[in-house]
Amino acid sequence: MLFNKVSRLGLLAGVMFLAGCVAEGGPDYRPPVRPGPSQPQMCPMIYAPVCGERGHSRKTFGNACQARADGYRIVGNGQCSSRPGQGSGPGAGWGGERPGRSPHQGNRPGRPSAGACTREYMPVCARRGNDRQTFSNRCEAERAGYRITGGGQCR
């Protein structure tokens, strides 16, 4: 008998709970689309600055991968320019080289250039006058004003 009263009370409580529930919309109702979790973009920690553009916004990134991961289009190598008069027209607004061109291309041997090189190890043999030296990569050699004579260590 006690069991009957408890089960009736439980049934009554369940019916009252369900009566309070409300269904949204009719047969054509579609719940709003929720964006799924975005996949994290893994980018190397190589410093090769680029200027990226998204809409009318330009921003300097540490490398092209980081710019693309944030949804930016690469418009130039190097930092974006903030100088007046350089922010209009295609490709303007950045103070570096064109995409695909090394920042050290065109440097004359014997003239050290300013700039940062990556820490990648890809040894090259280079020469300046009668001095031959092995550098950890092409950028380091060109930055020191040497002319590349071959890949690998000097022999």
Automatic annotation (TrEMBL):
PROSITE patterns: KAZAL_2 (PS51465), PROKAR_LIPOPROTEIN (PS51257). Residues 116-155 form the Kazal-like domain. Pfam families: Kazal_1, Kazal_2. Residues 86-97 have a biased composition (Gly residues). CDD domains: KAZAL_FS. It comes from the Bacteria. Residues 77-115 are annotated as: Disordered. PANTHER family: GEO10195P1-RELATED, SERINE-TYPE ENDOPEPTIDASE INHIBITOR. This is Protease inhibitor. It comes from Ochrobactrum quorumnocens. The lineage of its organism: Bacteria, Pseudomonadati, Pseudomonadota, Alphaproteobacteria, Hyphomicrobiales.
